[in-house]
Amino acid sequence: MCGRYSISKKAREIGDHFSVTIPAAFEGELYNAAPTQLLPVIAMNQPDRLQHFRWGLQPPWESTSRTPPIVINARSESLHQKKMFSVLLPRKRCLIPADGFFEWEKLGKTKQPWRFVLKNDGLFAFAGLFDQLVQPDGSTAFAFTIVTTRANELLGGIHDRMPVILGKEESMAWLNEPETEKLNDLLVPFPSGEMESYKVSPKVNSAALNTPELIKPWQDPNLTLF
User: Which of 68, 74, 128, 165 lies at a 20 to 30 A Cα distance from 150?
Assistant: First the structure.
């Protein structure tokens, strides 16, 4: 599963890395991206520019609900089987720029958040799918979901799922490959040896917060030795 992530780099660095045009109002530095927020994506409909879509697809059978549920993750194993995803796969794939994501370790009655990043602290992309959704007022907007796969060894002790992480070459394949069956080769766990993780502050639990403090290594003050 992937329920929070970060894209803490500045807008220019994001644009240069993905070779896309950045909207003038976008500054980057998103430390705590959360579901329902408008977040930057690179989609097949305009692959040369960064757009902002809402995180969370709306199931088509819930289009008339006043408060419809949202789907923030899509299991890679079911992309070809579930109609909700299979109809999007040919022409509605997207990349979600990121430089880290969060997962929570269960410790008794509490949960400790961890951040997972590349060892070079570089940018990467999650594989995603997008679609138009109908909002309560009848208007439409674009939304996305993040594709997940089984966890690698680094995450395995905390969660059994992880987002599909794509490097530059794999990102281009995800956007451009015409044969959807060939996309299965991309939907695998990212190598553990190229990643690292560390504990972060429980403040990341609040989606209302967006500060650099949230992605810094953290130590529980109650466990500090004097």
Answer: 68
The verdict on residue 226 lying in a domain is: no
Q: Clarify whether 2 is annotated catalytic.
A: yes
- Total structural domains in the chain? 1
- Residues 3-47 have pLDDT tens digits of 999 999 999 999 999 999 999 999 999 999 999 999 999 999 999
Helix (H, G, I), strand (E, B) or coil at 59: coil
Q: Which of 2, 77, 105, 196 is catalytic?
A: 2
Among residues 62, 94, 103, 181, the one annotated as catalytic is 103
The distance from CA 102 to its chain's CA centroid, rounded to whole angstroms, is 10
CATH number for the domain harbouring residue 133: 3.90.1680.10
pLDDT single digits (tens) 74-117? 999 999 999 999 999 999 999 999 999 999 999 888 999 999 99
Q: Is 94 a catalytic residue?
A: no
Task: Enumerate residues 6+ apart whose C-beta is below 8 A from 55.
Answer: 33, 34, 35, 36, 37, 39, 72, 143, 144, 145, 146
150 found inside a domain: yes
Tokens of 155: 């995450």
Q: pTM, whole model, 2 decimals? A: 0.93
Sign of CA dihedral 9, 12, 13, 16: positive
Domain that holds residue 54: 5-216
Whether residue 225 is contained in a domain is answered as no
